[in-house]
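Ticket #4471: structure export looks truncated?
Reporter: QA, pipeline team
Priority: medium

Steps to reproduce: submit the single chain below to the structure queue and open the exported record.
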Amino acid sequence: MSELTITEPEVLTDHTDVICSTSIECIVTGRNTALAQIEALIQQLDDISTLTRSIGGKTALDWAMKQDFRCGCWLMEKTETAMKAITRNLDRGIWRDLMKRSGMLSIMDAQARDQWYKSLEKEDIPAVSEANILSTFELLHQSKGEVFERGVINVFKSLSWNFKTNSPCSFGRKIIVTGLVKCDRWGFSLNWGWQRDRLADLEHMFMILDEKPVPDSRADVTRRLGDHIHENGHSNRYEDEMFAIKYFQKGTTHITFKRPELVDKLNDIIARHYPGALPTKN
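Actual output as written to the record:
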């Protein structure tokens, strides 16, 4: 999918400028300088603890922590153990920030984003270095079309075929989902869960195909829909530039697509993955 365009302000390009407005050398140098200073600080705290213990004042774990709130702190552990954990935590934060800057998260569906975040929780995450940053994000950049199309297919496959409106061959003018909203004596409310993620994924896909900036989670369709329901608890309709959404007390939600030309682009992707699924265009 070579025509895919990401309109985030900082995106992946090529080997010489992998992340716009971001100096990889500065990040790596800062990371290494910070780790060296942290290691020196740990050794200094250990030396001070040896002194205070020798004069009856106990160690930093006793005099540096708030009374009755003593808790674990890697700076108080042995250097080898502490630096391994601190390095991993620091690198994890840098990788998250780089991923956000890259624009890749915007084209990932919920499943792909979840896999990425889970990979950062492992013990053996790659160290933040110039070589690792370049190789990781160049690979992601090269596969961005595949990642995007896989997300489209995942959303399509998640539809329930129990509803006649949901075609097993393509996206139609609207889809029906369950579990997105619930209704009780106080009115409607938006559920948390995979259906909410799927709606956000659909908006991301439409915005990318329309070559418009993808809203972050603080302003995406699920947040706007949630705010609308909260402010209009007994309303059962919501509408924006991409969707007309109607939800019912029994728990079903009808999502009508307002941009049929973008739906056609989604169906082109489905047709590439499932040849023969769609009727031939005249």
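Status: closed, not a bug. The export was complete when the record was re-opened. Leaving a note from the reviewer for reference: Strands lie at 12-14, 17-19, 174-178, 181-184, 187-190, 237-239, 243-247, 252-257.
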